[in-house]
Amino acid sequence: MQAERTQATGRIVAASIEAFEAECFEQDAAPPLGALVVTLDGGPAIYAAVAAISTAGLDPSRPLVPHGSADEDLETVLARNPHLPLLLRTSFNARILAHQDAEQIEHRSPDAPPRLFARVRVCDDTEQQRFVSGMDFLEPLLAAGEGGDDVAAAFLRRAGRSRVDRAAFLLEAGRALVPLLSGEPERLTAILRSIRP
Amino acid sequence: MTLDFVRLAPRISELVEFLRFDAGDRGERLNQARALLRHLTADQLATALNQAQNATWLLAEPLEPLTTRRTAPAATAYAALGTDGSSIDVSRHAPAACYVINIGQAWFDYTRSEVDLASEADLQFAGGWLRWGDRQNASKETVVTGNLLDAYRTALEMLKLAALAEQHAGDAPIVALLDGQFVLWGLKESELSSEARELIFDRGVIYALDRLRRLAAGGRLVLGNYISRPAGREVTNSLRIADCPRPGGADCKDCPRCQDGSRPCDEVAGGTDADLFAGFLRQRERSALFGRRSLAADLGHTDSRYEAGGHRLRFFYLHLPGGEVARVELPEWVAASEGAVDLLHAAVLDQCERGGGYPLVLQEAHEQAVIDSAARRSFGLLLDRQMESSGAWQPPSGKSLSKRRRPI
Lengths: 197, 408
Prior knowledge:
The complex is a heterodimer. Chain A is α+β, with helices and mostly antiparallel strands. Chain A is built from seven helices and seven strands, in the order H-E-E-E-E-H-E-E-E-H-H-H-H-H. Chain A is 31% helix and 26% strand. In chain A, strand 5 and strand 6 form a beta hairpin. The longest helix of chain A has 15 residues.
């Protein structure tokens, strides 16, 4: 388990108090949408939810052009152009939810952004369960507004899967969402619909 | 912006109109040149070239029938290797005298789907690397900047190519490509110090070619220099000589000029060799192989240095599927093998198809090597900061400061 916990998936290349961007060490190996990730080094651990994933050209000034004819599948195209993977990068954006303060996880923004070039890894099930043991994470999770509700729903679904009492957890989360989104019934309905057990 | 477009715009219109008018005239002359190319025998051309006097042009000598139009051989499995370079030149306006050379490399082994893209940067600043001395004349120095730095960078590109070819030599034949001319031009022999000659040629280009030739001798490598939209006119110049009506052969100091002062041979000179072969070769076909010679000693000396090393220049033109006619230059030891020339022909076509009109392996080597304006600025900034923090900061020159601040 300890070995898995140090398995870095990416390195931070842009950071603010609210979010960071990490470039993956391997192409197409980003953590899934809504996954809980944590910084591995560069000071106290900072926890975040994966909010966006992209694979694009390594050099933004070089346009990506389609390769191969209509009857060539992806495997054929990659076999004929083995250099293409080396020219691409996969990165993900993560919304910061909490940070480590002594033994406690504080569900609010850290005092400073995570350090550039710090490594990031995906939290395992035990860490995920500990992170969602209370519902304090919901407020920072919803802070991005309506545009981030897909991320919030994906986070809750993944958190539910890490628990034995998945249905009970999602029910509890749904209840906790009600007062937080009481003034925004459409958002509340949309999230509840997408986490329905 | 101070460029006066109000004044330039009508001149651009005139230019376009001129080109439209000139195209017809050039087309007619190119047709005459192609007709001559079809009917001229190798003996007739050889006689004309041997008789010619005082021509300052570079000339092409065909090594195959002039009418050769060889179709592309079937592509065989190969691995492509390319290197390219970029540099930050010495600037007297910079806070320190130094230069950077960045060599990019690309290796695509299509037989094993193995790829390697990398670059290697080097910073030189010590006196011995900024000025190269001469053993015979203590006052003779070559300052490593401008053309000379470009030539040194080319030597490093070739040395890197040779090292990589040796490292990767295996079962698959290697097609090693470089961008631009095979022979280093633009260096004045009289200005080269002995150390410059040694570093650029003896321990540079010629040494690299010797190593590549050894691999080629084992049948494991072909080498070619690729020139996109080439400006060469050697074949056209040879046609000029062959077309000269002067009894006893061409003598450019005794030109039988026409009444309007033009030269009779202008009738077969409608453009570059690429223009000539664009209407002669079908797509995917290559021209005859050519050698090069010059009647003028100041042009011949660079070629002769390669010749002395056993690396005489050979070249052919290649009509690409996209319509462009490229020039491929190769050393004589590649040209000597029909199989090697076929492999080079097929591989260059394949690389151009993969790269959308330019060899993919050279495109990626270039991308590894290129130092863009942002990287140049970052290098300058890093140098400034490190010098400042060490207390060795030098103020920029007045001119440099003026260009940076651009005060009103």
